[in-house]
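sorry to bug you again but im stuck and you know this stuff better than me. what follows is a protein written twice so to speak, once as letters and once as structure tokens for the fold. id like you to explain what the token line says about the fold, in plain words if possible. anything you notice is useful, everything is just below.
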Amino acid sequence: MTLIAVCSGKGSPGVSTLACVAGAVWPPDRRIVIAECDPSGNDLAARFGMTQRVGMTSLVLAHRHSAHSTSPFDAHVQALPGGLEALVGPVNPDAALSLDRELGLVSPAVFPDEVDMLVDCGRILSGAAGQQRILTGAAEVVVVTRPDAAGMAHTLWTLEVIRSLTTKGTSSVVVVGPSEFHPKEMEQAFQAPILGNLPLDHRSAAMACGIPGKTKRFARSRLVSSMRLLVDRLAGEHGIRGEGDRRGAHETSIDSTPDASRSQAAAWENKARV
């Protein structure tokens, strides 16, 4: 298992959108599951009309009730449109905080070894025990930021929090939107690499959140193309490229994408129309 945590310092720079689109273009032949662990409240169940009876809460409770729970991991997983698998978290902030407290007692041990996990940790909160355990156990923590003065200041604080929690994994930054700063300047300020830069593609981001739109336009969007490059880099750094993925880093295109990965992204439109 490779566990990648995605978070932000403040605001809504696109953590959930990044996690979903990254999961949709994850290397083939590797099982990937999105897990919502935002202690401020989560989005997927509301966005896609999914039940909250199964998901992160049921998984954590099953693990807590028995060290040898007979409840299989798959019993808690739901499929997003196109087949991308997810462990949805509570929408209600109070329930999300309760889940965070429970998650703080079990750590990432709730996730199976054979599955890659993209964990949406949302905005970093002081004292969120479950969120901290995820960040501590992650192979890499990706901090999503807007490249303005406020966003960069919050990112600096977030990176300091992450470094205080663990020296096991690595940290990187994903910048959303154009910036007046050069990537090397930001890397020097953050003392962390810039994993990628995502465009401010509001229409495609809205489709990733369940708003209807044209499938082909989304699949060929700058958001999806940029995400493929980002995922290629992330996969290469952690040796998680699937056997069927012969693409070199930064050489992918929408036409070379395996049908399974492309359908995960494209089919969101169909679900949104239901």
